[in-house]
Specification:
Layout lengths: L6 E5 L2 E5 L1 H28 L3 H10 L4 H18 L2 H13 L3 H15 L9 H13 L3 H17 L3 H18 L2 H16 L7 H18 L3 H17 L3 H18 L2 H12 L9 H15 L3 H18 L6 H15 L2 H32 L4 E3 L2 E3 L11 H39 L19 H16 L10 H8 L3 H11 L4 H19 L8 H7 L5 H12 L3 H11 L1
Helix pairs in contact: 2-3, 3-4, 4-5, 5-6, 6-7, 6-8, 7-8, 7-17, 8-9, 8-10, 8-17, 9-10, 10-11, 10-12, 11-12, 12-13, 12-14, 13-14, 14-15, 15-16, 16-17, 19-21, 20-21, 22-24, 23-24
């Protein structure tokens, strides 16, 4: 039975009878009008906001993807109205952050299009970086590498160190899987140097952890477990300092691969099992890594059935997600051998087919990545803590003798720098050792011999010297506002008398006297106080009364014969 509910709508003198079906249509129309009206009101409210307000609003509501999308589109529309291509690009980048993979790539392509000629330091670099990251997470490594190289080239052109480091991590990460491991190791070392010479870079900790993991992974692939453990241990210690438990467990897991190579199978198992409790926080490829090493270890411990069980889990991951890793051919080979020995021809043939398939894919992938890396990406070289890039000779038509001259010149430059660097380090070590062995007072600020003449009465000189002694004990020289006139006033004398006494008795002018007191304080405090050693050079300079780190470093060098940065580094190592 069908029931009809009738409603009566009065329009003037007209009575209209509507069936339930017609009522539903009218009701839906009214709701649509109301929703449209609300959306239009929301759009108007958003369009009236400034760019900064929209970005802040987006960041506050990024978890609400529908509202966040409305904000991003309002930002784009506002930018289009103002014909500001860089802001249009920024709007599309915000859309990509809240979109699924394919849509995100499309929005990032729009970002690149609108910012291709931008002078902004972040664009279009950031779009290539995120494209590379999204491709990497989807195991589209070739595409990821292309975008990472483009990001690196733009970042280098715009002298954006933070983006250079991010791009290098992407490039190195791909090459750690599919490239030349020795060259990747060299690139990882240089990336770490670039990072350490720029400690103020954004996300320093995250970049440091990525470098340490990358270096450790390279050494594992090169069968050098002791070297790998150095970097994994560094990552563990640093993550503990930062109370970062997830990164801590990630590095613990990585030690499992190094302990396996050393033959410490139980330690390897312990590390893997301990970290596996946090597996939900790790990347997709972690499951392959975990099962691969569990399989290898059980093989070594003579538990072949357990080993095969872990290898089959890797096969299942490949079947479900087509997750491709360099270990797959090894796994399929082991499964082929196992089922061949069991006489299971069907499974043997099945795994043989998979081996041939993945081998051909991996070979093509490795060839592409190596060629792409060699042709379009030049590894950066660092000289004396500053980034300098030794550009490859890109013009293939350049004559051979010009190329040779260029290479020889670069080689001479590197050799000269190397000689100078190691010679200077030797001198620094000698000076440092003498200071540590004989004591600071015996080696700095020696007194000159001879008559002292200041034309002042002896009682005036003694009075000023006594007050200077108190001044030094009270460490009043640490104030940044010291001047000769102000100090003379505080000591109850005049600037002429004070200057004469310092010149004759301290054998220095006023400025040198104050600055030497400051660096001597820094020298002793750094040796005595471990907390002080954690400060930046700039912070140490300010604590000691200097207005800038350059003046502090120059004075420190004049007094001790090496820079404060070297001194801090040696103290951290020795104490």
């Amino acid at each position: 039975m069908v029931f009809h509910i009738k409603c009566v709508a009065s329009i003037g003198d007209l009575n209209v009878h509507l069936s339930m079906k017609h009522f539903t249509l009218v009701f839906t129309f009214l709701i649509t009008v109301i929703v449209f009206s609300q959306e239009e009101t929301q759009r108007q409210k958003l369009s009236s906001r400034s760019y900064d307000e929209l970005i802040d609003l987006y960041d506050e509501n990024v978890q609400d993807t529908i509202y966040a999308e409305s904000i991003a589109r309002a930002y784009i529309n506002k930018a289009k109205g103002d014909r500001d291509s860089t802001k249009i690009a920024r709007g599309y980048s915000r859309l990509s952050f809240i979109s699924p993979y394919e849509a995100a790539i499309k929005y990032l392509d729009n970002t690149i299009y609108f910012s291709r000629n931008s002078k902004h330091k972040n664009f279009p670099t950031i779009a290539f970086l995120f494209k590379s990251l999204y491709h990497y997470n989807k195991e589209a490594y070739e595409e990821s590498l292309k975008d990472a190289i483009k990001a690196y080239q733009f970042a280098k052109k715009k002298n954006n160190v933070e983006h250079q480091i991010s791009a290098l991590h992407q490039i190195n990460g791909i090459n750690e899987l599919w490239g030349d491991y020795q060259r990747t190791l060299e690139a990882e070392k240089l990336t770490l140097q670039l990072l350490q010479t720029n400690p103020g870079v954004d996300r320093y900790y995250e970049h440091l952890m990525a470098s340490l993991e990358g270096l450790g992974k390279c050494y594992v692939r090169l069968q050098k477990p002791d070297s790998a453990l150095i970097y994994f241990k560094w990552g563990i210690d640093k993550s503990l300092e930062e109370n970062d438990s997830i990164t801590y467990y990630a590095f613990v897991s990585r030690t499992g691969s190094a302990f396996y190579l050393k033959g410490a199978y139980q330690r390897a198992l312990d590390s893997l099992e301990k970290a596996n409790t946090k597996k939900e926080f790790f990347v997709n490829s972690y499951a392959v890594y975990f099962n691969y090493y569990k399989g290898l270890i059980n093989e070594k411990l003579n538990y072949p059935e357990k080993a095969i069980n872990y290898y089959q889990k890797i096969d299942s991951l490949y079947e479900q997600e087509q997750l491709l890793t360099p270990e797959l051919p090894i796994v399929f080979n082991k499964l082929i051998q196992y089922y061949s020995a069991k006489g299971n021809t069907a499974l043997e043939v099945d795994y043989l087919y998979k081996l041939v398939t993945v081998d051909s894919i991996i070979d093509a992938k490795q060839i592409f990545i190596k060629e792409k890396t060699n042709s379009e990406y030049t590894i950066p070289s660092l000289l004396e803590g500053k980034e300098r890039f030794i550009e490859g000779l890109q013009d293939e038509n350049e004559r051979a003798h010009t190329r040779l001259i260029g290479v020889l010149f670069l080689l001479l430059l590197v050799l000269t720098f190397t000689f100078y660097y190691f010679r200077r380090q030797k001198i620094y070590r000698k000076r440092y050792r003498l200071l540590m062995e004989k004591g600071e007072k015996d080696l700095v600020l020696p007194k000159k011999q001879g008559a002292k003449s200041n034309d002042l009465a002896e009682d005036i000189v003694n009075d000023i010297l006594e007050k200077l002694e108190t001044f030094e004990k009270e460490k009043e020289f640490l104030s940044t506002d010291i001047s000769l006139n102000e100090m003379a006033k505080n000591l109850g004398t005049n600037s002429t008398y004070l200057s004469k006494v310092i010149n004759s008795e301290k054998e220095q002018n006023f400025s040198t006297y104050i600055n030497h007191l400051r660096v001597r304080f820094a020298f002793r405090e750094l040796k005595r106080n471990p907390t002080f050693r954690k400060y930046t050079i700039k912070a140490i300079a300010e604590e000691c009364g200097f207005k800038n780190s350059e003046s502090f470093s120059k004075t420190f060098y004049k007094v001790y014969g090496f820079y404060p940065s070297y001194y801090v580094k040696k103290l951290k190592k020795d104490l």
